[in-house]
Write a structure and sequence with these properties.
mainly alpha, Growth Hormone, Chain: A, globular, about 75% helix, 20 helices
Length: about 425
């Protein structure tokens, strides 16, 4: 039997570093920072120009996340079949062009929503779904740390891209801003693809043969597994509970009597928690059983949401925002790690895509559901009691996964000299 994965020739320290750098750079310029994180910057100018309400202007977030969630399993399967770099490169090109085309808005809501769906569909591979799929091929014992470091690119993009978008909108107008962001994304994404490497042989026939012999669970068997759908459920619940707060957090602080500057500081604390959560999760899951780590972060997030609803003390609320950010950061690392640990590399792309679709659907359901409740009842009180329970259920589901499928002894683990 041939080995599960053929190591690339001359795979030294630079190769491993380049893979992490490529993943970080790609996520910095990918879908989440470039489109989702900048959505709020465009709401006001669009609402002013077209006479839209803010809910209409912000429809692009939900529409794009819906497109991403629906297409994620297909993108994962295509990465298994054609290779991760090829899928990312093609997707990044179309994603960048679609983002630039957002400048063509003429006030048509149908055009606004349709283009947003296209952005989400082709942005899926430029998110963690694409870039984090490469790392399990190269890292074994320190996979968690590699994931955490790479995810810092996503965190940095979430900080840099909104500021860049605001500068462009203020100086050159929102249409020019969309074009510049789209072109910039293409350039940085192609540079990221140049840094990435795969351990699979490029030929389609050899790739199919390698995947057939790769260590892991066959796709059909995995689709009948409780663990796969439990992981999917974990991230539907987790992202619904945490990501629902993003668009509503400033309004929650305003309802408690705080000024816009104080509300903005709370959003910054979510970002700080997110960055810390990514690094901390990566370090911990290499040393502690990942479901235990996940459960602790979900409990922390539940406590944060409860404090958000029950306290009026500003310092306590900042702690709550940080706890919520820690949980969001942990979720990103855990998806890839859990799929790899329980199902191996044989059908990794397809299974990662399915798990990631749960995260995407949660990001659609949560904000819309929370906003709909507030519009009808004029209060966030009841949802802020329900959301912590959802995170606790997600923690129980994670613990139910049990032991890893087997101790990882991959042929593709990083050499001892590189410490992976």
């Amino acid at each position: 039997m041939q080995p599960a994965l053929q190591p690339a020739p001359l795979a030294g320290r630079w190769t491993y570093g380049a893979v992490i750098l490529g993943a970080a750079l790609g996520m910095l310029a990918g879908y989440a920072p470039l489109f989702n994180a900048t959505a709020g910057v465009f709401v006001q100018p669009l609402a002013t120009e077209f006479g839209w309400g803010r809910s209409e202007a912000s429809l692009s977030y939900a529409a794009s996340m819906f497109g991403l969630a629906v297409v994620s399993p297909l993108v994962g399967a295509m990465m298994d079949r054609y290779g991760i770099r090829k899928v990312i490169a093609v997707s990044a090109l179309i994603f960048g062009l679609a983002t630039a085309c957002m400048a063509m808005q003429n006030g048509s809501r149908a055009l606004w929503v349709s283009l947003s769906v296209v952005v989400g569909v082709f942005g899926a591979a430029t998110s963690v779904l694409g870039y984090l799929a490469v790392l399990p091929q190269w890292f074994d014992r320190r996979l968690g740390l590699a994931l955490g470091i790479a995810m810092c690119g996503l965190g940095a993009g979430t900080v840099l891209m909104p500021a860049t978008a605001q500068y462009l909108v203020t100086g050159y107008g929102w249409r020019t801003a969309y074009v510049a962001l789209g072109i910039g994304s293409i350039v940085l994404s192609l540079l990221a693809c140049a840094l990435l490497r795969e351990r699979h042989t490029p030929g389609a026939g050899q790739r199919k043969s390698q995947l057939a012999h790769a260590e892991g669970v066959p796709l059909r068997q995995a689709l009948r597994s409780y663990r796969l759908w439990a992981i999917w459920g974990v991230f539907v619940l987790g992202s619904s509970a945490t990501l629902s707060l993003g668009p509503h957090l400033p309004a929650m602080f305003a309802d408690k009597g705080f000024n816009p500057a104080d509300a903005a500081r709370s959003a910054s604390m979510v970002g700080v928690g997110l960055l810390i959560g990514r690094i901390l999760t990566g370090i911990l899951i290499d040393r502690i059983h990942a479901p235990f780590v996940a459960c602790v972060f979900f409990i922390g997030g539940a406590a944060g949401i409860y404090l958000l609803g029950s306290s009026n003390d500003y310092q306590v609320l900042l702690v709550a925002a940080t706890l919520i950010g820690l949980t969001i950061g942990a979720e990103g690392d855990l998806i890839s790690f859990l799929v790899r640990s329980y199902f191996g590399l044989r059908s990794f792309g397809a299974l990662f895509g399915i798990a990631f679709s749960g995260y995407g659907f949660g990001a659609v359901i949560g904000p819309i559901g929370l906003g709909g409740w507030f519009d009808r009842h004029g209060s966030y009180h009841e949802p802020l009691l329900v959301l912590p329970c959802m995170l606790l259920v997600a923690g129980v589901l994670t613990l139910s996964l049990g032991r890893y499928r087997r101790a990882s002894a991959q042929a593709g683990s990083m050499p001892e000299v590189a410490g992976a």
